[in-house]
Structure formats: structure tokens, C-alpha cells
Amino acid sequence: MCGIVGYIGGKQAQQVVVDGLARLEYRGYDSAGLALVVDGKLATAKKAGKLVNLRKVLEEEPPPASTIGLGHTRWATHGAPNDPNAHPHVDCGGRVAVIHNGIIENFAALKAGLLEKGHVFGSETDTEVVAHLLEEEVGAGHELPEAMRRVCRRLEGAYTLVAVDAQDPDVVVGARRNSPLVVGKGDGENFLASDVAAFIEHTRDAVELGQDQVVELRRDGVTVTDYEGRPAEVHEYHVDWDVSAAEKGGYDYFMLKEIAEQPRAVADTLLGRIGSDGRLHLDEMRITDQQLREIDKIIIIACGTSYHAGLIAKYAIEHWAGLPCEVEVASEFRYRDPILTRSTLVIAISQSGESMDTLMAVRHAREQKARVLCICNVNGSTMPRECDGVLYTHAGPEVGVAATKTFLTQLVAVYLIALYIAQVRGTKWGDEVFAMVQLLATMPEKVEKVLETMGPVRELARSLANERSVLFLGRHVGFPVALEGALKLKELAYMHAEGFAAGELKHGPIALIEEGLPVIVVVPPRAREVLHDKIVSNIQEIRARGARTIVIAEEGDDTVVPYSDTLIEVPAVPTLLQPLVATVPLQVFSCELATAKGHDVDQPRNLAKSVTVE
Ligand code: M6R
Known about the structure:
single chain; alpha/beta; Glutamine Phosphoribosylpyrophosphate, subunit 1, domain 1; Rossmann fold; 3 domains; 8-stranded antiparallel beta sheet; 6-stranded antiparallel beta sheet; 19 helices; 35% helix; binds 5-amino-5-deoxy-1-O-phosphono-D-mannitol
């Protein structure tokens, strides 16, 4: 939540900062703003709404040239999304400018103290206290880096801060507690950002900042300390994707591009993990085979779409690895008393590696001595660093707020983990694991095949653009697919959409069925006869009550034809792998329907891609 960019170098800071913000807009788009240091003064501009509004302001009143500055794109927490609450925030004298991602929990007490001292506030944000606290510190003669350290020692909560001092045109200072912040190291220039995407066109050399660190960015170097000023250890890395991956590449929306990239993303996530002997090699997980043998329970924690991947993982883990597996929404996990031991493996699934709910659940699990593994898409993010092990998905950067390709790659990752545990613990014969791995390897072409047949799904979506509600039904792994379909439709089309386990229907939800209500049903493969036949009965039950049935079934499944108002065929695959092909039509459906309603599918209202506050 909130995108942050800081720059110091030889280029025009305004351009670098605004271009960086454009790549971070997925993190929040309630307002945008920037501050530049110009001849001992600050030049600031900020505007409510998307970045385009700030661009207009900058066109109408271009600020003076500057080679040092910072910028922010906001997802509002404290204070309405209006101009005064937009970042940057400045102190009383207009000397210090600050941008912030996170929540300063003790801001009310700090603000009261500052008001008593006569500071004047111009916004309702928690962030502004930092500007005034820095004002006091630089006013007392401390240089900005030391001022920041002194201020951070007084702050509670989760935050990333970046500040400039008009009287020091040679330094940008950042601080990090919990919320993400990375450094981009250039030649005679350096960058700070919430995500490498902001500076990827300038440099691919990055530095990951740790907890409670302050970074001092100068044109010729970067210094990182802890809050006491002691030199801190940092992790440097090279970003393995380039600027083209973070661009739309001719598509109208990132989401469309990301849906289309799924075959490659699935293939990349499998790459290098299947040995020539057909055995799985997941050494990077950093959890030994012996440790895996000692596990007696798995708990999966995640939010949103990642939680749906977790629900599917449960079926795979219990079936292949023979271990009990619980799945829980991360935001609930640490507020009950989960029973965790050294033999519990907790798997955190997070695309961003930054979701605060999941991060807090990870910390709680580690405090209880459980081993924690994460499935993550973003190298350099917080969760992989804090977990015992990590399995990266190789989806590449996902910019659209709605998760698509990262969901499919999370599924690949959970299948790999489940099969790997089965291989290590011997719960499946080697040849059974091998056969399933071979099938997994065919999934990129199967997903490609689904994408090639999406014309009728788009047409259907456009025809339903004026509906008020859509229901989704599934059984077994089709149930989480139904939940995911409903989530996509809610977040993109702002429509009432709900996913149900088809068996639950008669326990209440069937009352929702009325004449013409679109109901999308995910039908398991015919090979799972009992499941399959039960859902075919469910389709008949809802149809008898007037529902308009939209059925997703494997190709050649004639049994569903008589009960389907619309039939969407997907390639035949084993039941556990079906979510990889059955989810794709639902993504395309929601994207097209939302577009037909005139929505910006990359930036749905009220949302941000990384939810870095609880
Ligand atoms: O980065 P994470 O995977 O931890 O994010 C979790 C959810 O916030 C995320 O999946 C969200 O539900 C997406 N917008 C869904 O499309």
C-alpha cells in the first residue's frame, strides 16, 4: 500500500520520480505527489486521484529543474483521499518533505505533543508528525540521516519513510520498519523505492533493506545503519527481469497481458525443479529432507487469492503427502491459539511477500517454534527473509491489482511442494510422483489451449454486464476455484458474487436462486465419478429453479450438455490439477465483464496490490 520513490543523481528528478510512480501505482492510487529540492527550498506538487491528475498539475505549473526528489502514490489510511492529505508532507517551515507507507500507531500522542509546542498541521494524516519531528531534529543541528534515526526511535507501527531536507541537496534518507523499501544502485545516481519496478529502467542492481534500518542515499554511495547509527548488513542482488516485463507490451491492461503470460509463468515455475531422472529437486527450500520427515502437520496461511491457492494445496498435500493440512486466513491466525510445535510446517503463501496479515502470522508461527516456508513471487521482499525456507514462483512482475498469473504459479508451487514431500516421505511411489510431475509439465500447453478458446467467454461476459449478481459453485478443488472466480468478479466488476461448495447449496444459498440468475459451475473431471455426478445433480437443481447455468467442464463431457445454458470446455486433466485450467476462463470472464462496465481492471476502486497494513 502506497508507492514510494526517492532519487538522487544527475537526471531530472521529476521525470525519474513520476516514471517510477507510474510503475508503483498498483500500490495505491488515491493521490500522488512529489517534492524536489531546488536552491535551498522545496518545490512540491500533489493532487488527489490517480497519477494522471498530478501529471496535469506538473504540466500546468512545471516545477524548477532538480536532480534530487521523492514521490508518493497513496492508498489512504488516515484521512480522506484529498489534496491536503496527499503526500509529501512538510514541516512548518517548509524545510523537510516526507513520504510514508504504513501506519504510525502512536501518531496521536506525538501529534498532541507537537501541537502543544506550536506546530501547525496541514493534514489529517499520521505521516505529518514525522515531518514536524524531523523539523525539530534538523532545527537542533542534526543532519537528516541522524535526524531520521532519532525520529524512528520514537515511532511505533509499520512504516517506510523517505525524506529530503531543502538545506541539504546531497542526501535522500529512507527508513524501514516492516513495510518494503529497496535501494537501486546506479552509476552516479541512486534510487529508493517500494519495489524495484520503480527504477528497473535505470538499474537492475538492488539492495534489500532489513528491519529497522536507515539508508542514506548520496550520488556516489549508499550507507545503511540501524536506528542507533551502527553500520548494518544488507543483501545486494541483481534483478533477473528487465523493464519490458513491467510494461503493457501492447495490451490495453496489465491484467490482459498477465493472463496471456500464464503458460510461460507456469513453465518458468517448473523450470529447473524436475531432474532428468524425473525426481523433484527443491533444494532452494532450505528445509532438509530429515526436517520434512519429522513434520506431522501442515498449516497454510494466506490472504485473498493466495488463500484460495492454499485451499487447493490442502487437497494436494493430504492426497499426495498424506499429512493433515489446515488452511487459515492469515489475518485470523494469530488471534486464536493455534497449536504449533517444531513438527508443524507452516506454509505462508504471498505473491508480494509483504502482506502485513501474512507477515504477522509468519512471525507468530516462528515465535511458536514452527518451521515456516513461504511461497513468494517477489525476490527481495520481507517474507522470504523471515521464513526458514522459500519457494519462489517465477511469474515475473504482476502489476494488475487482481492476481492472475501469480495464482497459477502458486498452484504449481504447492503441487511441487506436495509431490516433493510425498517423494521424501515415500507416501507415493517414485513412479507415481514421476507420472504426476510429467503431467504437470504439460500444463503450460493446456493453459495455452484454454486461452485460445476464450472468445465465447468474452462474449458471455459482455452479455452479463448488467446483471446484479453471479454465483459460483464447485466441489473438491473446484470449490476454491469458485471462490477465486467470485473474488475476481467482486474486485473487478464491483458486483455481488459468491462462491459456494456445491454441496452446501441446499443448506441455505439455494434460496438465492431466482429466474435468470447466472450461476457458474465448475464440474470435476468425469474420472472422479462420484463428485462429478453429484455436481451434475446440483446443476439440475438450480436449473429447475430458474438459474442460468454456465458450466465449466472438461472437453467431451456430454453428460453436462443438457443442463448447460452455456458450456465452457477446458482440457481434460487430473482432478487435482484442474484449477490450473478451470480458473483461466473465470479470470477472462471477470476482466471482460469489468471492462464492459468501463472499469479500470488494473486499478479497481478502493484496492491496492500489496496490503501492507493490518
Ligand atoms: O501479496 P499477497 O499474495 O499476500 O496478497 C494477498 C491478497 O491481498 C491478494 O491475493 C488479493 O486478494 C488480490 N487482489 C486478489 O486478486
